[in-house]
Amino acid sequence: MVNLQATDVWRPGASLEALTFRAGKLRAIREFFFAAGVMEVETPQLAPTGTVDLWIDSFAVKSQFHKDPWWLQTSPEFHMKRLVAAGSGPIYQMAKAFRDEGAGRWHNPEFTLLEWYRPGWSLRELCREVELLCRAVVPSLPPARWLSVREAFVERAGVDPFSDSLDKIRAAAEDAMAVLPQLPSGDRDGWIDLLMVSKVEPGLGDPEPVFLWGYPPSRAALARVESHGGVEVAMRAEMYWKGVELTNGYDELVDPVEQAARFRDERTARLAAGKESPGISLELVDALRAGMPSGAGVALGVDRLIALAFGADSLETILAFREIQ
After folding, report:
1. According to DSSP H, which parts of the chain are helical?
2. Residue 295, strand partner residues
């Protein structure tokens, strides 16, 4: 039986002050890119393929017209890179993105993602623009510093994720975690991730923001890998502020053969872990084969940045409605 008794559940979760603040910051972001000559684009949020990254789960959508599920996009990345390959030049997009993960203080399954691409730019150049964009939203933002993943782990977790033994890394993670998740003893990346969450990330970028760069090659995602100091590192940088990850940027991989191989390996890993997997985006591989220019791209969590700018301690403060708890 439907309960027709009046309640206040219908009301927005955010205050009018917070929503007005958010609207002003969204306008500031668009004005920043307009002034920089970067074109705004829109790409599909629903597609027959999606990411096959082991660590990012997609929402599958049923259709009465298609046998196979379609997928809500976890990022506009693949479609935007196809635009860059087609000669778009620098582009940006503020889009809703969807990830099948639990809701939390700084996580929401549906969120606003700002993503932009700069053909011909290096990762360092793009990160300088990231800092300028963030300062357009938060004028008082202190200057950012750079910290390598190796330095961060040695300082905060007491291990070197590149050279230390798996036994040492696992022991450090076991000491750091009060409750350990189910994890195979030989899963080096998994133990490193536990240390990242428990020892490296907390308080990172407080008070000044930090660009964490130079990840192990196994965490390259769609970034190029190159040698630095005799060590192979992924040319990837993430910006943290007040312990919150705000951005994830790459010196973009443009090799179609390498990209196809990574897609196959990632999909195999998903299936081995018993996870449902979208199909591989062969269109992106074809775009790289056609000649996507080298350059850099970055994704920024808009909800997180605006919440921090507002002085909030969670996303809920600046979201009009949070339907998934």
Report:
1. 16-36, 77-85, 123-137, 149-156, 166-176, 188-195, 256-272, 282-290, 302-310
2. 119
- How many Å apart are CA 36 and CA 90, to the nearest integer? 10
For helices 16-36 and 302-310, what crossing angle results, to 10°? 120
Output the pLDDT for position 181.
75
Task: State both tokens at 239.
Answer: 């910006």
Which residue carries 């969120």 as its tokens? Answer: 111
Q: 81 phi and psi, to 5 degrees?
A: -65, -35
Q: How many residues does the chain have?
A: 325
CA distance 245 to 201: 8
Residue 45: how many CB atoms within 10 A of its CB? Answer: 14
What is the DSSP-derived secondary structure letter of residue 252?
B
Domains of the chain are 16-144+256-318 (3.30.930.10)
- pLDDT tier for residue 1 given thresholds of 50, 70 and 90: low
Cis omega (within 30 of 0) for bond into 143: no
Euclidean distance between CA atoms 209 and 142, whole angstroms:
7
What 3-state class would DSSP assign to 28?
helix
Q: How far apart are CA 141 and CA 134, in angstroms?
A: 7
- Angle 282-290/77-85 helices, nearest 10 degrees? 30
Structure tokens at 26: 């969204």
Whole-number CA gyration radius for the chain: 20
47 band by pLDDT with thresholds 50, 70 and 90: very high
CA 263 to chain centre: 17
Query: How far does CA 307 lie from the centroid of its chain?
Result: 17
Residue position matching structure tokens 């190796």: 150
**Closest C-alpha to 302, from 253, 247, 261:** 247
| pTM, 2 dp | 0.95
What span, in angstroms and rounded, lies between the C-alpha atoms of 164 and 309? 38
User: What count of Cα atoms within 13 Å lies in the side-chain half-sphere of residue 141?
Assistant: 25
Structure tokens at 64: 């009465």
